[in-house]
Write a structure and sequence with these properties.
mainly alpha; 23 helices
């Protein structure tokens, strides 16, 4: 880093320069070389550069065999097992973990941070293969192994809490997951590392969890912090820019979202990320629909649908997201029968999945509103009630959510159409409370709820 002060190095450039330096400087010190090669591989794993990480770990493993250091060798094996997991090679991962833990059990006075790291890696791989029970047990065991972390072990504790936060979100405990992310971020700030890449990762993970739990305003704020940190390292990923843009869209700020989506799309194309491009097109198209550029909305939705259809396996839940996007487009084009058919398709796809998906709540609420416009009140009521019920289930640990507010708006519309004015006002009042807390006072959904409530109050006054 001090070699050339007139030119700052990017992280990628530093990683590229590190390996030959290690090979030369530590050629005769295999223990130190193995340790540093493992650290370098870990950084490449964070960047999902799996082939490079594998090559480094193999070099580290060869160097470690030259020294009688069990901790060093076990640490490398746990990294190798984790890499197997990232490559979906779960049987080799399990075999490698079994060998590593057998050695750990046979070694007295082993470093507790090493035990915690191996437990976290094993838990991460269990999460990848969707064994949430095993993953949760390993994460809790990892934190227990650390106890009150020593100063040099705080990074390991933070990493484990980040993994635990992701896991709790998968286990439908979003508030508990958010608490883990926030605690980990506070730890980093206390260490003076609140602007590091790890801090950015935690904020992005927090934002994704909050968005799925209907905490839209809080999600926007976490995404903004993640973006600010990422830009300090040379730029944000397309995924991060897309998630921030989607928050802006939901909060009624579609014009602000468009430049972010365009930039994310161009970046994903440059990276050769076909799946990323397709998702940005499908989910980002809504910004153009909401700003009345329907031709661009049609173009992006069509391209994204075509690409994802070619890339995804049959039955993937993302086909539900595609159907929802197409339904929104059909509604914008005033083709309500087509919108209803696509929403029913989306709900069926989401129902067939094994996990609750927040998009299903959105699809159900929109389906109720569409059926109401088509005069199908019985079906609209069924879907509105279901949207409210699923929204309540999804907000575990939170007092309010955007999902519940939006579902209550749809329910109130159906109640009003059935001449149940008092029930409609109660639904809209509850909706307004949820939306103000979760989406803010100026969000599109909040404004709509306030307007509906005001109009319902006007009716009785005019009759008097």
């Amino acid at each position: 880093m001090t070699e050339s002060l007139d030119k700052p190095f990017t992280t990628a450039e530093l990683l590229e320069r590190a390996e030959p330096v290690l090979a030369r400087q530590f050629a005769g010190v295999p223990a130190q070389r193995a340790h540093l090669l493992t650290q370098l591989a870990s950084l490449h794993l964070e960047g999902m550069n799996l082939k490079k990480a594998e090559a480094l770990l193999l070099s580290a493993r060869a160097a470690a065999k030259q020294v009688p250091d069990v901790s060093l060798q076990v640490g490398i094996e746990c990294h190798v097992a984790y890499l197997h997991g990232l490559n979906n090679a779960f049987d080799p991962a399990q075999k490698t973990f079994d060998g590593a833990f057998e050695t750990l059990r046979a070694t007295p006075d082993i470093d507790r941070a090493l035990v915690a790291q191996c437990l976290q890696f094993r838990g991460d791989v269990a999460y990848m293969r969707r064994d949430t029970k095993a993953a949760f047990a390993d994460m809790k065991a990892a934190l227990a192994a650390l106890g009150e972390p020593k100063t040099e072990d705080r990074n390991q504790a933070i990493s484990t809490r980040n993994s635990l936060g992701i896991l709790l979100g998968r286990m439908s405990q979003p508030a508990a997951g958010a608490a883990e992310f926030r605690g980990a971020f506070t730890e980093l700030e206390d260490m003076g590392r609140g602007r590091t890449q790890m801090a950015g990762v935690i904020q992005q993970n927090l934002a994704i969890l909050l968005s799925r739990a209907g905490q839209r305003q809080a999600s926007l704020e976490a995404n903004q912090r993640a973006l600010d940190i990422a830009r300090g390292f040379g730029g944000a990923t397309p995924s991060l820019e897309l998630h921030y843009a989607l928050d802006l869209i939901e909060l009624g700020r579609s014009r602000e979202a468009i430049p972010l989506i365009e930039h994310a799309l161009a970046d994903a194309k440059t990276r050769g990320d076909r799946r990323g491009v397709a998702y940005i097109e499908v989910e980002g198209a809504r910004a153009w629909c909401l700003t009345d550029d329907l031709s661009r909305c049609v173009e992006m939705t069509s391209m994204g649908r075509s690409d994802l259809t070619a890339l995804l396996r049959p039955g993937h839940t993302s086909f539900g997201t595609i159907a929802l996007a197409r339904a929104r487009l059909a509604a914008a084009l005033a083709d309500l029968p087509q919108a209803r058919a696509l929403l029913l398709e989306a709900v069926a796809i989401f129902d067939a999945g094994s996990e609750p998906i927040s998009d299903e709540i959105r699809a159900l609420a929109l389906l109720a509103r569409t059926e109401l416009q088509l005069g199908e009140l019985d079906a609209a009521e069924v879907h509105a009630v279901r949207a409210v019920a699923q929204a309540r289930d999804a907000m575990t640990g939170f007092d309010h959510s955007e999902w519940l507010g939006s579902a209550l708006v749809a329910q109130g519309m159906v109640q009003q159409a059935r001449s149940r004015s008092m029930a409609a006002r109660e639904s809209w009042q509850a909706a307004l409370t949820d939306l103000q807390a979760a989406a803010g006072d100026t969000a599109t959904a909040t404004v709509e709820a306030r307007t509906l409530l005001a109009s319902s109050d006007e009716g009785p006054r005019k009759q008097r």
